[in-house]
Write a structure and sequence with these properties.
Elements (H helix, E strand, L loop, with lengths): L1 H21 L8 E2 L11 E5 L5 E8 L2 E17 L2 E10 L4 E2 L4 H12 L17 E12 L2 E10 L2 E13 L3 E6 L2 E4 L24 E11 L1
Antiparallel strand pairs: 1-9, 2-4, 2-12, 3-4, 3-12, 4-5, 4-6, 5-7, 7-8, 8-9, 9-10, 10-12, 11-12
Length: 221
Amino acid sequence: MKFKIFGTLAITALLFATSCKEEKKNEVTTTESKEVKEAPVTAVNFNVDAANSTLAWVGSKPTGKHEGTIKLKSGVLNVKEGTLEGGSFVVDMNSIVVTDIEGEDKEHLEAHLKGLEKDGEDHFFNVTKFPTAAFEITGVTTANGVSTVQGNLTIKGISKNISFPATFATTAEGASLTSEVFTINRTEWNVNYASKSVFEDLGDRFINDDIEIKIDLKATK
C-alpha cells in the first residue's frame, strides 16, 4: 500500500512538474545581436500606427501575477508583394500600464516598474535613463501562413537576438503583425529585481524571471 501511495505521489509530482514546464509559451533563446535585415529597394514601407498598436505583458510571482500593456512610439514594416521583408519599432517605456489592479496599488506598481521610486531607479526598467526599447528585424521565415520573426530586442541598452512566431497580413491600405505569446528571461536584459537566479535568500519573495509578451502591430501606407 505504501508503495502504491508513493508511486501515485511520484506520478502526480512528475505531471505537475511537466505542466509547469509547459506553461512557458514559446520560450525564446537569446543570441548576440545580428546584422539588421535590409529591405529590398522595391519594398513598400508601412508606418506603424502607434495609437492602435500595443505590446501586452504578463509577469508572475509565487503569490500571483500582474499584466499590462506598453504603447509603441514609432515603427515601420517593409513589405514586398505581401511578404514581410524587414522593419523595426520603438517602444515607449514611459507608457507602461498595469491593467489588473486599480488605485494606489496600480500607481505604486507602475512607478516601481518605471524606476520612479526613490532608490528603485534600476530595479526594473529605469525609464529616466532608458525611455525607449526597440526591436529590429534581422530575418523572417514563413511556413503554413505563420511567420517566424527574428530580430534584435534592445532593453536598457542591451541588445539580444530573439525569434518568435507571428502572423503577418496585408490589405490594400495597411498591414498587421501579431505575435503569438512568447516568453523572455528578463535577466538577459539586466532586469534583475527580486530574481532568485541573481539574488540569494529571497525565500518565496522572488519574482519569476520569465515575462510573457504579445505584440500587436497595425501599420498603414
